[in-house]
C-alpha cells in the first residue's frame, strides 16, 4: 500500500526575474536516501475537468510554473499534485496529494451584492491574487482597471439605465507584498440609484477592464463581473396643482389660495426640501393663486 506522507502542497504567487510565477511548496519528510518529488501542474479548463500543463521531477521542496498568458492565463484556477518516491525504488510512490485550487486573477469582495434604494454606500474591494510586474522603466508597478455598469433588467424587461452608481470610473491596483491572497487592492463604493420608480428588484453588473497594459498576460484578460441586485423600495408622491390644490404624501387634501413663497415639503432625515411660489392668477371677481415657481434642494 502506498504511504501517505502528509506533504500538504500549497500554491503561492511570486515574481521571478520580473515575471509572474506560481510556486508549489510542500513539506519534505526526512528519509534516507532523500526522496524525489513528481509535481504535476493542472488548470481547471471546464467545471469539474482539469488539464495538465506541466510535470516536474525535483529533489527540492518546491516547484515553479510561469503564468505566460498562453498555457497558463489570468482567470485560471490552478492545482499542483505532488507524489514522492525514492530514487532506488521509483515504482514505490506515495499517495498523490493535491493542493487547494488557486485562482489567479482579479477578485471582487464580496463576489455579489444585495443593496437597496436607500442611499447607503457599500464598499467593493478589488484585488489581484498575483503580483503586479513592471514591464518597463516607463511603467509604474500598477494595473489600471476601467469600471463600467450595466443594467441587466428584470425578468423579461429590456435593460434600462444602470440602477447603481460607483464612486470612481477607474481604479489603480498598486503592487504590494503578497499576503492573505492579495498582492494589490483598491476599493470603490457602490450606491443604488434612487429612481422614484416602482420598477421592482433589478440586477446590474459591474465590469472591470485592464487598460494601458502592453504585456500579453493582462492585455488578453477580462475579470469576472459582479452582480448587484437592487431591492426596490416604495416611493411616495405629493402634489400641488392648479389654484393650487395640495395632496400630501399620506393622502390629505386641502387648498392654499394665498400669495407668497411657502415651504411645500421638508425631510426630517436628510437635506431635502421644496419651496413653492404662488402668485395671483385670478380675476376681479375671484382671488385665486397659482404655482409660478418652485425651488428644490
UniProtKB/TrEMBL annotation:
InterPro entries annotated for this entry?
Answer: Dev_Signal_Modulators, Ig_VWDE, VWF_type-D
Q: Tell me the GO molecular function terms.
A: signaling receptor binding
Q: What is this protein called?
A: VWDE protein
Q: Which domain of life is it from?
A: Eukaryota
A cellular component annotation (GO) from this entry? cell surface
Classification via Pfam families? Ig_VWDE
Tell me the keywords, alphabetical order: Disulfide bond, Signal
Taking every annotated instance into account, which residue ranges of this chain make up the domain VWFD? 236-297
Q: Which organism is it from?
A: Glareola pratincola
